[in-house]
Specification:
Chain lengths: 485, 485
Amino acid sequence: MPGSASDAEDFLSSSWMERRRVGYDYTNSLAAMVGEKHGVPYEELERFAKDNQHILEEFHKREEKGEIGFTQLPSTVEYREEVSRFLLKAKGKFDYLVVLGIGGSALGLVALQEALKPEATSPSTPPAGGVFPALYVVDNVDPSLVSSVLNRIDLNRTLINVISKSGATLETLANFLVFRSALIEAVGYQKHSRHIVVTTTLGEGYLFELAQKEGYQLFGIPLNVGGRFSVFSPVGLLPAGLIGIDLMELLAGAQYMKELCHSRPSMKNISFLSAVIQYLLDIRKGKGIQVFFAYSSLLRGLARWYQQLWAESLGKRLNRNGEEVFCGQTPLVSIGTTDQHSLLQLFGEGPNNKSITFLEVSHLPDQLAIEEEPSPHEMTDYLKGKSLQEVLLAERRATELSLTSNARPNTTFILPEISPFTLGELIYLFELQTAYAGELYQINPYDQPGVEEGKRTAYALLGRRGYGEKQKEIEKKMPPKRHII
Amino acid sequence: MPGSASDAEDFLSSSWMERRRVGYDYTNSLAAMVGEKHGVPYEELERFAKDNQHILEEFHKREEKGEIGFTQLPSTVEYREEVSRFLLKAKGKFDYLVVLGIGGSALGLVALQEALKPEATSPSTPPAGGVFPALYVVDNVDPSLVSSVLNRIDLNRTLINVISKSGATLETLANFLVFRSALIEAVGYQKHSRHIVVTTTLGEGYLFELAQKEGYQLFGIPLNVGGRFSVFSPVGLLPAGLIGIDLMELLAGAQYMKELCHSRPSMKNISFLSAVIQYLLDIRKGKGIQVFFAYSSLLRGLARWYQQLWAESLGKRLNRNGEEVFCGQTPLVSIGTTDQHSLLQLFGEGPNNKSITFLEVSHLPDQLAIEEEPSPHEMTDYLKGKSLQEVLLAERRATELSLTSNARPNTTFILPEISPFTLGELIYLFELQTAYAGELYQINPYDQPGVEEGKRTAYALLGRRGYGEKQKEIEKKMPPKRHII
């Protein structure tokens, strides 16, 4: 296994800067550990990575030409500056931040907030009182959710950030109309525009037009960046900055990962190699499910963000030589140790159709130690003096060992710590991994044609003008009899 | 299709009591709607249900004999009374309730709390000030989670409910030792026992012994009820009652569903028929993933509870005629409309390996209407006068129609409202469905042998006495080289 031992040594004996770097341990995805039926032989992996080195080179050429939108974001100074100016202006003015957005307009922010500012969604005193506003993300057109938020905030001290790339997302518009009415009732029409910020495609769409008419502050999303790749645009930066996340560190982490992946050959490029491994496990070993198993309660948001990224980018229908092909791994969110008591039984003894991706955090803040045992007992004496962090790490390692011995292929991303820098790295790493995976599957990872049909059907059901034909089509497809018990 | 039209009519023209009943629409799981490749022919379903009627009869006989633990819980007066007495005693004494539990000791409570008392986890003024304490569920041995809870509560006004059936769950014990030390520091050793309630198997285990020694209040879990089937025991009832959930209504709903399922033949028994449909979709149509697609943000906890129930009960390794067989559908949590912008692309155009289970709520509280549009526009004029509830229902229906036209089999549970009664129905319905499914797969749905290996490995890694052999075994299995980049 040429190079492998020194790879590991390189990583483990790395410099200070390197120690902030996310690592990737793919040992247990190899046939040597889980057998040829479920794992990839190292030689096959190396050959495949080498044979597909051209994907990497072509992608980086397109990237350098500026053809790929999301890769430009970490170094786009303009967004950072524009957001910083607004942060200065808004400082201290708001106790509540309400974000109206769904899918790619919400999940990136939630990932950052849960990992870096977990206290932002449940302020210990309302109004937050602190420097930063409390955050409410309204990501569903659910009356219970909307009214619970309306009941908790003082609209006089609230900033509403409505986010929709198209400016026409049905759920976001519906919620916006409700919040806007409530806002006008609370602060009056004259002042209401100071409480609204719109993030959308500049120059087009309903929200853009309305913002121009009403004088709402506007932030742009580049046309060539899709919602799920937009964390490092104002979509993520503005609300993340408002709740106090260090944007410079976040972007520095992303830029660092970009340069790292750009400068490395296929077998050392963490985004590319992890994409290749998932691709091979899916296509050649039948691992149609990827479990994203993050070992910290703080990383549930990140796991959900990744779930969207991987699912929506790669879940595609294709026509290949006249035949319909359906592709895409199904990503499943799992949190350790919590889901060891919920899903691990299935992962270890159910169908061997899963690739497990662990996310391990080497150092968690808040070292809490188990100081004493109430009465000496073999159930607890080995815990005395241990920190919760040690217990958590041992449990993750035990889960990895147990899945490996059951021939379940798994890999581990090693996060040195949870910080804006490492979150920046990780988010960029996964965006790039997904983009590379699109090339491997030979699909377009940036569109989502499959949700259009549902949207048109919803318009028809809600009686939108111009959807009469669709209505008739729906009626024709109705079952002659419904089976309900 | 004999009987089917009148089934639907029965349901739709039902009485007041019946109108609180959960319904099940399985039209779109049938071959008539999604084709024979992906759907079950009605005749095949009917034949299979009839041929397996004996499962139902045998199960109900065992149930009547008291052999099946969980089915006894809704009518066990003893637990209800014991819990009620404690609720009276504890009333007004605590501002915070901390539940230490994991898996089946936490998920049922979270399901109830998120659906019925969403405000309980983010009190608008701390101390809650209201009649009921604020709830913190610590379901991970994560130092960030534990310290964030410790930072938010006043231990002088806190009740800690530690829940573990075995009395020996590693994560729960570790967290308990940390909280206990903090509690003793805050209130003194003399008084600390008034702040701790233990729910565990009476008569055995570490927690039982400790509770006896220290004088902690004890609640029992019957030996023949597993954690994931224990919502209607003190595991769920005690903390749910403390935060103000109506236990009588909850249990009445469960009992109602029990009697309904008990009295009906296979094709009208909602738990049995839904189990049969999932089983046939899995085994005969290759739907190895079941998406639990709940249309309300309030039902995420319920979806996660169901995910554990289905995964841990049915994900089993078997030896059949000398051959290893792995069974179990992989359950995936999805929330509508949120995940239409995250997972729907994959559900509709990715691999056709999923059965979609919708959960629709006919009436959500908090009717919010869209009162006006800022400027008349075709993007918004059809929304004017609509309630958010109408938009939500139209979106669910549109998703159903679009998945059906893509030949993706789906079924819908219809929840008349979100209330303690209907949650009681639903939880019992799914427990029974899972138990029936165990009979269909011919596996034991009540054990979880696959997590034992991981537990022993964790003990060995943490240096517990008596695990020296295991440690050596682990060392032997270590890869000669790790592959880390």
